[in-house]
Amino acid sequence: MADITLQDIIQPENLVYEKSKLLTEKPFHYCPGCGHGTVHRIIAEVLEELGVDDRTIGVSPVGCAVMAYDYFDVDFVESAHGRAPACATGIKRVWPDKVVFSYQGDGDLAAIGTAETIHACNRGENITMIFVNNGIYGMTGGQMAPTTLVGMKTATSPYGRMPQWPDGTPNNGFPLQITSLLAQLPGTRYVTRQAVYNAATVRKCKAALKKAFQNQIENKNGVNFVEIVSNCNSNWKMSAVDANKWLQDNMLPVYPLGDIKDNFELIKK
Amino acid sequence: MGELKLMKGNEALAEAAIRCGADAYFGYPITPQSEVIEYLSEQNPYERTGMVVLQAESEVAAINMVYAAGAAGKRVMTSSSSPGVCLKQEGLAYIAGAEVPCVFADVVRGGPGLGTIQPSQADYFQNTKGGGNGDYHNIVLAPASVQEMADFVPLGFDMAFKYRMCVCILSDGAIGQMMEKVIMPEQKARMTEEEIKAKYPWALTGRKRGTEHRVITSLDLDSARMEEHNRHLQRKYAEVTANEVRYEMINCDDAEYVFVAYGSSARIAQKSVQLGRAAGLKVGLLRPITLWPYPTKAIESLIDKGVKGFLSVELSCGQMIEDVRLACNGRVKSEHFGRVGGIIHTPEEVLEAMKKQIIGE
Q1: Are the beta carbons of B218 and A86 separated by less than 8 Å?
Q2: Which CATH number fits domain B3-193: 3.40.50.970, 3.20.20.80, 2.60.120.260, 3.30.230.70?
Q3: DSSP assignment string, B171-199
Q4: Nearest CA to A102 among A124, A86, A85?
Q5: Measured between beta carbons, which residues in chain B are less than 8 angstroms from residue A79?
Q6: Model confidence over A168-202: pLDDT tens digits?
Q7: What are the chain B neighbours of A69 within 8 Å (beta carbons)?
Q8: How many domains, chain A?
Q9: pTM
Q10: Which residue of A70, A73, A91 is in closest CB contact with B72?
């Protein structure tokens, strides 16, 4: 058999994977091993597959994904900390035919922006809300988040998150199950919790995201809310591999994966 | 041809928004401006023009809805009163940094804090000197009548889109609550998607991939670029200062002493001018209509013409007086007179203050 050169292999018919056309050439600034890059990729793939790039407007948060707008080749507005659901509401109300999504982390969505989150969901805005939960403030350097697990060490809970002192006096409070809470609201249509730590979860997450966008595109009313339980290996101070293992062992028991609500019906678990 | 109506200032503001083709109002109730959102809800402009009216969960949410809907090229507005405006300052700073056009109205009440629901002009600093973080300005228009409450809405939108910045309509509880006759303009059509796309290429309306990257943000971590962005904003503010200063002069041609007052205080000071003239005093009134940019040159020209002193008449403990003094630059005397706490000065006491503090009897 004759020698096969690289040029022989790099042919369109041999293509098994390529970067989504809706991602720009800008290299991600995310830490190696972080879930944001994967989540960005599958969102871009979904928007490309749905063919809505020319009418999509994204809302980026304050946090690690603040510059998400650099990576997506669609229109973007950068919101104030926690205000992305209000921004998405503003855009969708004046442009009901556009596809509008917000992208937020746990400090942004579940702490400083809790009011905006709950009320956008309660109004049943026809938007897609994407929530990346890694249980810690990433960009500011690893402080405690509302979703930080009990006992988890962070820069502001250096001895581990302790909801109450031994005598019952309030201290750090409890991990906030914001997604389960939002599922209780009549304005949420589709609420799901996903992850991206291996190929199988990435595929499931992509399918969930696709549904969350499809519902909006089909003008079905109600918020489509996708939580993605992710890692922060830098601030968790672990290797990427260890962080993904730790996520499965520790995060998932508190934040179990799967659909929580579909078509306005709570799914019994 | 307009339509003659008897309306509250707050209602006139709301009706003017509908008639000038505004696309949306996002607000939150607070006394003494709740009539704005009440009137809009009652009128149901979504039926009349397609204008969206939404009661947000907070002032914070409302201004962020304005920020993003404005970033998407629409003509959007909000309104509030003093403590609510504090909450809006976060969004207003983002709007300034990201250069988003919008109109917001502050119907001022007394402070600090929860203060009182009675009229006040103590939000002058908050609106003309910033309020949010960073080096920025909003254009500040000060209506002195119900008619101007209506007129300044379309004017505000024109300025907002011309300069891509926020225009503040700064009134007070008296202007917002009082009823006067007002001529309402004809209904204007809202802009179409094609018109918005053609006129505002920066607006986020969705775009084909591969076309020019478009983002509305106030963030840039590159120091050199951020310095240039700030320089750009300052050049824009200089252009606004050169082009947009508005004021009114009453009996100033031969005046020796001049009241400086805006909004409700200007209405009262106008009467003080009449009383003073009747008593043989050569007094006049300078009424700033733009509080930022401030009519500094108008004060300078009055001094050049021989004015010997200015009295800044405000429903505050002395805020605009700082701009009057900067304009006077020590050349002539300038003092402040004001009532606060919801008490409105009488024309007589304003004239007395001029005699005592400036003319010197």
Answers
A1: no
A2: 3.40.50.970
A3: EEHHHHH-EEEEEEPPPPPPPPHHHHHHH
A4: A85
A5: 64, 67-68, 94
A6: 999 999 999 999 999 999 999 999 999 999 999 99
A7: 215, 217
A8: 1
A9: 0.96
A10: A91
